[in-house]
Known about the structure:
The chain is built from 30 helices and 28 strands. The chain is an alpha/beta fold. The relative contact order is 0.08.
Amino acid sequence: MAGMVSFDVRPSVPASxxxxxxxxxxxxxxxxxxxxxxxxxxxxxxxxxxxHNPVLMLGRMSQQSFTSLLEDESFMDHLNQVTEKFEQYLxxxxxxxxxxxxxxxxxxxYFSAEFGLTECLKIYSGGLGILAGDSLKSAxxxxxxxxxxxxxxxxxxxxxxxxxxxxxxxxCDVNDFSNLPVRPLLDGDGNPMTISVRVDGxxxxxxxxxxxxxxxxxxxxxxxxDENHPQDQKITSKLYGGDPETRIKQEIIxxxxxxxxxxxxxxxxxxxxxxxGHSAFLALERARQLMCERGLSFEEAREIGRSGNVFxxxxxxxxxxxxxxxxxxxxxxxxxxxxxxxxxPALLALGRVDGADSDEPFNMARLAIREAAAVNGVSxxxxxxxxxxxxxxxxxxxxxxxxxxxxxxxxxxxxxVSHDMATLLDRYLGPGWVERPTDETxxxxxxxxxxxxxxxxxxxxxxxLVAFARSCLRRQLENRDASSEELKRxxxxxxxxxxxxxxxxxxATYKRATLILKDKxxxxxxxxxxxxxVQFIFAGKAHPKDSTGKEFIRQVLHxxxxxxVRSRIVFLEDYNMIVSRYLVEGVDVWLNTPLRPMEASGTSxxxxxPNGGLNLSILDGWWDEAHSPHVGxxxxxxxxxxxxxxxxxxxxxxxxxxxxxxxxxxxxxxSRDGLPRGWIGTMKQSMRSLCHVFNTDRMVKQxxxxxxxxAVAEFKxxxxxxxxxxxxxxxxxxxxRDSWHGIEILDLKADIDGNERVGAMVPVEAVLRLGxxxxxxxxxxxxxxxxxxxxxxxxxxxxxxxxxxxxEDGTHVYRGEVACEDSGKYGITVRVIPxxxxxxxPFQLNLITWL
Length: 851
């Protein structure tokens, strides 16, 4: 508004309570039970009404309330204990990372379009953001030197409510940054720090904010500032909002702006981790910065930058990847490419399969893959899906050698375990389940928990879930002006002692939320069984443009209103971290029914495990590698059918069978003391077998050991001596590409006498021409294995052949041996690839010559 002066008013907290404000601005409180209890103690109603936001709470408390706290010795003692614990955590240098890397500490940067850290900071939409938030928490616990980079959205993701017919409606709440646990970064003069990014011909000022996540800083970027053009102020308005042009602007701010912001505050990370392709433009900015600082060409700078980039994809379908038409890339990068010393066609080629295909859009995942030293999916099965999705980028490379690895996702266990269960784990497992969650021996302590204590703890959480669901349902009905009779019924829905099954996730088509409704008559018989009652709690949002997903929600709600089942099914609106926490802490069974292999990983089912819940799921994502008959149930055996309707029918029938024959009988089979001993045994086996694996501490350690530290070593190697090795590598790649057509494999001989036995070594000799290349430029390999029914090598294995000599005619002879490890029909061929000694990934040039 013209002629207006704006300013922030901060809470007036007495000096003696200053520690409260310090605690409030570090999100360590959101996974520290003592800190949560401390803030809840201030005012439990206010804690709930502020979405668990201690900063807003302190701003709304009266001075009289603060005075009362100062006079409360018990509270002050509690505050001192929490503060002391907080300070010890931040100062402790005996972390996992320090034990292995205690000098010349590198820095890692983790870029993500969303971060789900706590319910009051609404800059997340779902699993990708929650995973990013849990990753930062574990990095903090492990002492990993990482910084997060994201966007601070003015509105965040949408809020959901349902109309009387059950159709999803959307509304947005505006984030009030001055009342959130975020602070503006300040420059040397104490003014809010900004950076500048040129977008669509205009300079856009980007404000920088900081969130403390334990030991880890998270930096967030925001364009909603007065000096920007009104269109540019809206760039960071909504998470995943707007049209494709808004998306490309957001991704320019995230990738290019994020990389500039780090440099402007004096941080120079070696490893840049792209959590999905939204931030892939950072690779271009990295190269530009290296060009400016070291006087390198674009290709030389690419080699150095690429060596330190890591790309994680969570997407199982190409439709989930952002793509932009060529005209849009030209519009937004027409000026920028000049700073890179390339042209638009060269830039477009980085995001295409065929750079010369003018109709092919620019794909952000392809850019990220090309500009990353390491690429990974987020589960073992998803690695296979990812290799299949992007196989066209590695033409002629055998499927099992496509350079995509996997790091299965996890959860930050302390963030998702109920207070009740955490107290029980403290008692019988000690502090190790928090401090060393990846230590398998720690979880042996689960067997020490008396069955009665574990069951009583779980029952308390189920009772609280039922109470929460009733409260939510009543509020939903009140918002729809429901009758007094409907409100009364809401107080009686669900049974605190009944088998409770939860289904909560995004209502996308492939997640098949309505698979359980395929045979409504059979489902009704299950729900109406008075002797063995079963109940379902649903929650989840559909994308605003996903009409099919909205129809699924409507179908669930309509079925829940049918006579005989209305007290057995509840749909909770506005799925968020609070709803999720109640569900994963209180359900007996977590149901997951995706269409395999469309679930890249999934983490919601992991969250029930440390709370004693059991999983009932399709063998997809993480459950494909986690399942055994001792820890939960699998729907089917991973079969896929061409007819989706038939697959739905088969798997819905399998689901009903498992419920009727296994889940329900096991839950209601009670010993003399009323305990379901068999069920409790499965709970313990699930906790013991899965908790130490499916957590973000294991995940972060895997990223550090397998990707980050190797990237650090390669980055330093290419950067030393004035980047001489990067220049040599860029020149060698150019020469190799230009000369590769001169390679000819002329002959292959295998010394076979027809009487080979298992364990025999078969001598192999290959003759080839290298053209303008030298033996040091290539690796020659025999590729062999058992043949399938089509006489193709199945799961082949490469063996490097050594150069024996060079003939007078310029041909080269290579020799080696292959091992006959199994009986069967073998095949042997030979291939030439770029040198493994020069390239850590010999397939990155997409050059390979087969016999």
